[in-house]
Amino acid sequence: MGLKRETKAEGREVTSIRNDYVRSVERQEQRQKAHKVRLFRRLSVFGLLVVLTSIWIGSTLHAQSQTLSEKEQLHKEALVTLQEVEQEQEKLKEQIVLLNDDEYLAKLARKEYFLSEDGEIIFTVPKTEEKADEKE
């Protein structure tokens, strides 16, 4: 019998009481719902700003790290070039010292320009014959 009473009570509608207290509770519930909606919207906007800022910072850091690695590579290449130039400079300094020596200049002039001293005869041997002799 208890079941029959419950089913009959479920089918009936209850009329609400319209007094000041009920209206104030309804308004307060509506304000709370509106507050929750505004809070959710504010948090969504804030979250979106955080995500966008994180993406921007991440992309900036990535670009800076690429630029830094490129600059490091250029620095290494510049160091290699500097070493080559310093070696070339040392060779040129040695050559300057040698060119200031009169005996070296005389020897160089005899060798390159076939200049000779008085009574000296210069014989030139073709370089191709020397290489053929070395191969045999």
SSE order and pairing:
Blueprint lengths: L1 H10 L8 H80 L2 H12 L13 H9 L1
Shape: rod-shaped
Q: Tell me, rounded to a whole number, the average pLDDT.
A: 85
Give the CA-CA distance, first to last residue: 128 Å
Which runs of at least 5 residues are low in confidence (pLDDT < 50)? none
Biggest β-sheet description: none
* E-strand count: 0
Instruction: Give the amount of beta strand, in percent.
Output: under 5%
Helix-and-strand structural type: mainly alpha
Number of helices: 4
Rounded to the nearest angstrom, the radius of gyration is: 49 Å
The secondary-structure element order is HHHH
Question: What proportion of the residues is helical, as a percent range?
Answer: over 70%
Task: Report on the architecture of this protein.
The chain is an all-alpha fold and 136 residues long. Helix content is 82%, strand content 0%. The longest helix has 80 residues, at 20-99.
Brief summary:
With 136 residues, the protein is mainly α.
Features:
4 helices, 136 residues, mainly alpha, single chain
